[in-house]
């Protein structure tokens, strides 16, 4: 998805077999621009699947770092879809959510509906489909903490990738150990592209981009007392299980919630196709 379009100009590799699932219930999303900020704000809900990757420009391995690559991202507003795709490259899709923005952060249960082709064929009608749901495995469990195994796995892969580059390895693993989970500062990675009007099977624009996401203030944080079960209702148009290697009814290994203010900064283009 990232390496192939650039023809080797960038190089990234997934560093864990885990998939990160986030659900954001945002009562206020607003521009930081002094003029645009006067327009107002919007509410937004989004749920996304992420892959943790490591890499960067092939000609600058000393600048490589950890990035979160979104694979599917479902949102409830058209403005979020337009701005997310056009400005950054977020793979956003329209959806509706059973859980309101005002719900408790300690409860992650939700059903996500989106327009989908359940099967495929010339007479197949797209449906408002309950594609995803999260439900607690033991809703009566008491609060506690869990020790994720992801850190040892990620660190091991980083050592393999960066053998012979001790300075870069030390910086990468040091950042990981310092931040730990929750990974509240999430530098993100995108394939930003637009279809060609003359050849719809091709792109008229392609770029590999990245953007910093910084946690500005954390009010509360906690661990879910129970794993959550991810239910995926199959749809031909959304092959989530096949692409990510997930299985419906699979249980989470580690989960947390937090209330925070965060900032999406200005991005950077790592590679862009010549025009």
Helix content: 10-25%
CATH class: Mainly Beta
CATH architecture field: Beta Barrel
Secondary structure category: alpha+beta
Helical element count?
Answer: 5
As for the CATH topology, it is: Acetoacetate decarboxylase-like
Q: In angstroms, what separates the terminal alpha carbons?
A: 20 Å
Characterise this structure:
The chain has 275 residues and is α+β, with helices and mostly antiparallel strands. It has one domain (3-272): Acetoacetate decarboxylase-like, CATH 2.40.400. The protein is built from five helices and 15 strands. The strands form four sheets. Strands 1, 2, 3, 4 and 5 form a five-stranded mixed beta sheet that branches. A hairpin with a 7-residue loop joins strand 3 and strand 4. Helix 3 (150-161) runs antiparallel to helix 4 (166-179). The longest helix has 14 residues, at 166-179. The radius of gyration is 19 Å and the shape is globular. Residues 175-183 have low confidence and may be disordered.
């Amino acid at each position: 998805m990232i390496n192939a379009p650039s023809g080797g100009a960038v190089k990234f590799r997934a560093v864990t077999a885990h998939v990160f699932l986030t659900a954001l219930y945002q009562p206020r999303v607003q521009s930081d621009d002094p003029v645009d900020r006067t327009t107002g704000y919007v509410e937004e809900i989004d749920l996304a699947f992420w892959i943790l990757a490591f890499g960067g420009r092939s000609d600058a391995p000393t600048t490589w770092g950890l990035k979160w690559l979104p694979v599917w991202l479902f949102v409830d507003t058209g403005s979020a879809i337009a701005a997310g795709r056009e400005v950054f490259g977020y793979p956003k899709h329209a959806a509706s959510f059973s859980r309101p923005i005002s719900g408790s952060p300690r409860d992650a249960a939700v059903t996500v509906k989106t327009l989908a082709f359940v099967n495929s064929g010339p007479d197949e009608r797209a449906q408002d489909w309950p594609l995803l749901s999260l439900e607690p495995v033991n809703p009566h469990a008491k609060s506690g903490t869990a020790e994720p195994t992801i850190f040892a796995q990620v660190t091991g892969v980083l050592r393999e990738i960066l053998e012979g580059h001790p300075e870069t390895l030390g910086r990468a693993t040091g950042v990981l150990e310092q931040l730990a989970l929750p990974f509240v500062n999430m530098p993100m990675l995108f394939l930003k592209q637009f279809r060609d009007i003359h050849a719809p099977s091709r792109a008229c624009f392609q770029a590999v981009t990245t953007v910093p996401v910084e946690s500005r203030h954390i009010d509360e944080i906690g661990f879910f007392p129970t794993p959550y079960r991810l239910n995926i209702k199959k749809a031909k148009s959304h092959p989530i299980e096949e692409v990510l290697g997930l299985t419906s009814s699979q249980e989470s290994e580690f989960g947390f919630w937090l209330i925070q203010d965060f900032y999406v900064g200005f991005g950077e283009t790592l590679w862009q196709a010549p025009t």
